[in-house]
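Customer ticket, subject: "Can you confirm the structure for Lactam utilization protein Lambp?"

Message body: Hello, I'm evaluating your service for our small team and ran a test protein. I'd like someone to confirm that this is what the system normally returns, since I don't have a reference to compare against.
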Amino acid sequence: MVEYKSEKALSPEYLAGDANDNKDILKRYEINCDMGEAFGPWRMGPDEDLMPLIDSANVACGGHAGDPGTMEKTVKLAKKYGVKVGAHPGLPDKLGFGRRIWLIAPEDIYTMVLYQVGALKAFLDAEGMELSYIKPHGELYFYIERDDEIKKAVMKAAKVFGVPLVAAKSAPYLEIIKSENQQLIQEIYPDLNYNPKGDLCRIKAGPKTVRTPEMIYDCIMKAGMADQLVDIEGNTLNINYNGSPITFCLHSDMPTALENAKLARKAVDNLNDHYGFTKK
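Agent reply: Thanks for trying us out. I re-ran your input and got the following:
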């Protein structure tokens, strides 16, 4: 078997902390994917082809993308393939796909998340499905990471729905989550890159931030087998999941989204086989 563990590795404070909520909530290693990001007749990702390959769908709620018809279609597609659904609220910026910096008051973030997640939950209720989690999209995610008041506003909304939040591995985020007795599922982004501090690089931060399908496979295998990843500068970072299952996020708007998902599925299935977890 390939040796994935690197003896010489950095341990950023940002990636410290446990991932016990992952162990409590996730039954196996998983793939989650941003879905339902079309708008009216404009298609975004190959959702119909991706859905059979994933475990959880992060469904856009009409903020950065999506609309009522797309939400209904995506929820029904997830139900068809036995895929869990989480809400994927974003800043109300369809022109910028929710990836531009906006300044919004915490109380407006709270009501915005309630509004978007509530809309998606209505479609889930109609299909007899559960809302599994809330995972903020794009700039809303980065806003949460840099502003504790925004973080608390989103946490307050998640508490209304009684579901965990999903975000990249983050010791500061985890500390605040624990203080409020909430849960955080911490994920890895194999189709993007990380800086040496252990923070996620933005999608538009340059060509080095996007990975090929083969790099995605290797990233997932290294994360699962060695509890490590490689950053944008080539450093190996310890990620401290310590045996807890990991959910790996993929973006459906990537040019190679389907190829990414196929190799990610292979890697995740390999990890579940190795650790004796059931496969999808």
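A couple of notes from the result: The chain is about 40% helix and 15% strand. The longest strand covers residues 30-35. Feel free to reply with more questions.
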